[in-house]
Amino acid sequence: MSSADLTLTEDGIPLKQKLARTTALQRRRALLLTLPLVLFLVVSFVIPIGQMLFQSVHNDKVSAVVPNFAEAILQWDGQGLPPESTFEIFVKDLAKAKQVREVGRTVGNMATRINYEMPGSRSLFTSTARKAKKIEAPYKENLIKINKKWANPAIWLTIQRAARDITPAFYVAALDLKYDKNGEVVQADELYQIYLNNFMKTIWVSALITLICILLAYPVAYLLSVLPLRQSNLLMIMVLLPFWTSLLVRTTAWIAILQTEGIINDILVFLGFITDDGRIQMIYNQTGTIIAMVHILLPFMILPLYSVMKTIPPSYMRAALSMGAKPIYAYRKVYLPQTLPGLAAGTLLVFILAIGYYITPALVGGEDGLLISNLIAYHIQKSLNWSLGAALGTILLVVVLVLYWLYNKLIGIDKLRFG
Amino acid sequence: MHKFIQQKGKALVYLFVAAIFVALLTGTIKAAIGFLLVFGVPLYFMTKMPEYATTGERFSRYMFLVISSSILVFLITPVIIIIPLSFNAEPYFTFTEGMLSLDPEAFSTRWYMDILHNGMAAPQAIEGWWADMWENAQWIKAARNSFFIATVSTIIATSLGTLAALGLSRPEMPYRALITSLLISPMIVPLVITATGMFFFYSGIGLAKTYAGVILAHVTLGVPFVIITVTATLSGFDMSLVRAAQNMGANGWITFRRIIMPLILPGMISGALFAFITSLDEVVAVLFIADVDQRTIPRQMFSGIREQISPTILSVASILVLMSVILLTVLELLRRRSERLRGMSPG
């Protein structure tokens, strides 16, 4: 035993032990300070996100409306048509479900759910449900007599798939895939390939916006970093005031500037570049979205770049130039590498914010300016296909979290500063 | 040309002589002004540069100045331009000819009055006008909602956020990186996703379409800003002050109240302002979880832009710009105070 282990504190405990105890206590205290907020966010933020993830794989619209039948059809082996007993349960459940008026528990809800996977099948369910009370044995035969579509095994396979509460079906839809007649996952028809294209478009538009932001932010940040403090503070206002202004205000301003009866078109007409009836459509399309979003996100690029550039001593460039480097070479070899941390921070931040942007595309995007966020909102608020909206949201969330992880790895989120 | 650009002083004289020459030659003053703008301004700026600079350097430096100032103009113009537009006497979104010729008839405050009148039962009545405005005017109702929600969520976000930031900046904090990224993630996760999740969860527990639900959402979205600003202030904090206070017998609360808080107050206030403005500007969560009763200003603007766009929106926007100017001034003053307190720079 070495002598260090035997060193005792005043109360007779070995120093090492006492130290460990104190550190543990301090760690617990620090953790305790963050605890209220962590708990708050778990309730207000983490659980809701978790609920969205759950919603993306969970849909009980079939088993909630026709519970006995859902159980029965899951027993079916998928060969030919289901047995007569299953048909009987189906008709009885359907007749019972017809009486239900509770929102989310009606035959209509179930029909909508199955219609997602088999477009055009909705009326089959609603019309059959209306007659279900009168259908008598033999159920299989009579059901097919009402509508011969019931003789198609594909519809029963679709129902069987939809009867499962936990389903990958919405990810299948979100990835522009579909189930074919035999239940195999195949590519959807070209006409229905909306989401992957939109994801691609969102990524492409965000990348373009980020690139424009880099090109615009770099000279401004450089100018701000080399000017004397008094002047740069003054010019900084021109960056910070838009940053602090409501983004709805800025979007409104761009509508006023870019619309066909707006300021830019008026100036162009006045200068004679275009005729009065040849006014250019610059808003309510992708161009308008990109212009407005660049304006809104530009400060997020300028500020991190500026804070890095401010720390670069001008003597480095001077040294390179005095040793005979051409300005462009010196810039590329000496200045640019030093600004990379700021550039990376700004790029990731702008890209992350752009990829999930909702308000501006919703207001000035028109038809072709809509991004993936707008599709998600459409499914949550308008079409009410919540599970599909949640599945699209989850895919977007994964992309953003990967970028966030990258940001943390490269820059560290604790380095983020405003102003 | 080369020699000209590198001459100081005389350049201005030469330019004016040339401009007069142009005016005489073409017979119009406009041409001379155009000449001065296109050639005069750049040449004048180039002569002002240091003597050792070559012509090429002067030219590229001038181009750089032109480009960066146009980008700054691009940034500030949309924010500024809506202010004169909001005084339009006509229901247009552009400058009328009367406005361009500064005709007082072309300007009016009718859209500012419309902010008050919109939704009122009897805007022309004299008796009970104030009560009517306070109770019924749509924008006033939205403003009341906005300020109520923003104030409550700012108070919660600032207190919880400061507490957490204090923990995070302690050197012995375990899992610091993990917890920091969790606390900042509401800023990173796309608003639509956050709002969707909240819509599902809050509907299930009866918080949707209530003030409590909106406030909960806005606290969540405001917290990252408080964390970022307060940890930034704490990063320059001298921990020996705390030990000194405790050494002299102060307990935790007194140490915080008398030592820590006065020093980090600027950071706390700017964090609070960020949280406040975030709540005041937030519309996605409101769109998803609020009802008509909780309509806020941005929500009202959102439907205004979508449905019946009128210059009233521009006058609301101008008022909001004015508010941002005030907030920005307060922030700048706070930043200076904080730097002075921490001895970073004089004044």
Spell out the key features of this protein.
heterodimer, A: 419 residues, mainly alpha, MetI-like fold, 2 domains, two-stranded antiparallel sheet, 20 helices, 2 strands, 70% helix, 1% strand, B: 347 residues, 16 helices, 0% strand, flat
What's the topology here?
The complex is a heterodimer of chains A (about 425) and B (about 350).
Chain A: H1 3-6, H2 15-57, H3 61-65, H4 67-75, H5 84-98, H6 107-117, H7 122-131, H8 139-146, H9 153-163, H10 169-174, E1 177-179, E2 185-187, H11 195-226, H12 229-244, H13 247-258, H14 263-271, H15 286-309, H16 315-322, H17 327-355, H18 359-364, H19 372-381, H20 386-410
Antiparallel strand pairs in A: 1-2
Helix pairs in contact in A: 2-20, 4-5, 4-9, 5-7, 6-7, 11-12, 11-15, 11-17, 12-15, 13-15, 15-17, 16-17, 17-20, 19-20
Chain B: H1 2-5, H2 10-26, H3 29-47, H4 55-85, H5 97-100, H6 110-117, H7 129-136, H8 138-168, H9 176-188, H10 191-204, H11 211-234, H12 240-247, H13 252-281, H14 284-289, H15 297-306, H16 311-341
Would you write up a description of this structure?
The complex is a heterodimer of chains A (419) and B (347). Chain A is mostly helical and 419 residues long. Chain A has two domains: 61-165, no CATH class; 195-415, MetI-like fold. Helix content of chain A is 70%, strand content 1%. Chain A is built from 20 helices and two strands. Chain A has helices spanning 3-6, 15-57, 61-65, 67-75, 84-98, 107-117, 122-131, 139-146, 153-163, 169-174, 195-226, 229-244, 247-258, 263-271, 286-309, 315-322, 327-355, 359-364, 372-381, 386-410, and strands spanning 177-179, 185-187. Chain A has a two-stranded antiparallel ribbon with strand order 1-2. In chain A, α6 (107-117) runs antiparallel to α7, α13 (247-258) packs across α15 (286-309) and α19 (372-381) runs antiparallel to α20. The longest helix of chain A has 43 residues, at 15-57. Chain A is flat, with a radius of gyration of 31 Å. Chain A starts with a helix and ends in a 9-residue tail after the last helix. In chain A, 41% of the residues are buried. The mean pLDDT of chain A is 88. Chain B is an all-alpha fold and 347 residues long. Chain B has two domains: 2-85, no CATH class; 138-309, MetI-like (MetI-like fold), CATH 1.10.3720. Chain B contains 16 helices and no strands. Chain B has helices at 2-5, 10-26, 29-47, 55-85, 97-100, 110-117, 129-136, 138-168, 176-188, 191-204, 211-234, 240-247, 252-281, 284-289, 297-306, 311-341. In chain B, α8 crosses α11. The longest helix of chain B has 31 residues, at 55-85. The model of chain B has no long low-confidence stretch (mean pLDDT 86). The interface between A and B is large, with 89 and 91 residues.
